[in-house]
Amino acid sequence: MNLSVTQKLFLAGTICAISLEALAQPADPSAAREIAKIDGEYSNLSVAKGMPAASVEYFAEHGVAFAPGPVDGKKYWAGRTNFPGTLIWQPIFAFAAGAADLGYTTGIWELRKGNEPLSLAFGNYLTVWAKQRNGQWKIALDVGTENPQPSEPPPSLQLLPPDVTAGTQPQENSRRSLQKAERQFAEAAHAGIGKAILDYASDDIRVYREKSFPAVGLVAAKLMLNSEHGNVTFESGGSKMSRSGDLSYSYGNYSKEHGDVVEHGIYLMIWRADMNGDWKLAVNLQKKLPPTAKP
Length: 295
Description:
Elements: H1 5-24, H2 30-49, H3 51-58, E1 59-66, E2 70-72, H4 73-78, E3 86-96, E4 102-112, E5 119-131, E6 137-147, E7 158-160, H5 171-191, H6 193-200, E8 201-209, E9 215-216, H7 218-225, E10 231-241, E11 247-258, E12 261-273, E13 279-288
Helix pairs in contact: 2-3, 5-6, 6-7
């Protein structure tokens, strides 16, 4: 299609006007606040009725849990009758897409012995929330890692509003850009996972590994990943992108080769688009499976 100079100027002006209008709109964290509130209510129900009953209520149909590999969360929790203790948790971070159809929360969890104050284990969790057709938020995916007992109280809840310019591209353009970033990241990870994560990381990236406290931010991520040199291959089990094209997650199985040692595990990656439409890795979670478990 050949456009005249006048038409090109008009098109450029229109795009500029749309961008300026987006910039003028205040960032709205209300959807992030909503899922953080629902996350807290989920924890309260876990205390009141037990983790299995609470999870059956909050998981979406075909929402994903890990036991230890990916399973149907609602069916898994419906079949759990012997959960050992009382699980409580507290969200410390929440983000939702500009379309308010997809979001995630993360925070700290503690497993207690029944109603006693005795703590059995500690860790961090990540929950991906998807808005259903009836307008309710339900769990699309939930996963956690274990770590030592924290020596400090958890930080206050942080609500990150969506970037008002990140979701201005047509959805198909965002999808193609995301697929390109994921493809390039996978190629880089096959040469070295630590460097690949850092090369694609957002400034506030969160990296989760079993038996370790999460690394939050680039400086902490570099310290954690400096010793992570394996070549990783990812096998996707599923993914979803928000309608606004500014948030996406994927999960599945990974294998990591380092010398003669091969490690298998599960992963979750959350991508966010920045103001330029570039996709950045906001979350990388890799959890090694026990030697007897099948990916």
